[in-house]
Amino acid sequence: MTLTPADEEKYLTVLSIIHYVMAVPVILIGCFPLIHLTVGLGMLFGDFPVQPGSAPPPEGLFGMVGGMFVAIASILIVIFWGVGASMIVVGRSLAKRRFHTFCLVVAFLEALFAPLGTILGLLTIILLLQRSVRARFEGEVVDPPPA
Questions:
Q1: What is the distance of C-alpha 68 from the center of its chain?
Q2: Residue closest to 123 by CA, chosen among 86, 98, 90
Q3: Are 81 and 27 in contact (CB under 8 A)?
Q4: Are 11 and 61 in contact (CB under 8 A)?
Q5: pLDDT tens-place string over residues 86-130
């Protein structure tokens, strides 16, 4: 696939904008585990009273389950917010034509988020593997090929 320098510039700009746009839902999805984090903290600190007349739960059950809620929710929050933040950085890096390897690594990570992340990641990988695009990131002036 041979692209003209004008096409490469256009595609890099479009991919940069799409990275910004796609980072928002990824970060918002990372907010859903905040509910589980809140429930887990409530279980750990004993904010769930036992109803009168019912048998108390086994000793340490709320602590164990609450700890699992907190741990899993925290891991998910860090992953989604980290990927969202790195997508923002990639959008900025594509716009500035910097950090080629970082953009490529994040594009591979984005490909794990099916279906839209897969499409975005693959398009970014295909474009970044072009030699002339790599030259742009290294600061070289890319002239149009002779006709």
A1: 23
A2: 90
A3: yes
A4: no
A5: 999 999 999 988 999 999 999 999 888 888 889 999 999 999 988
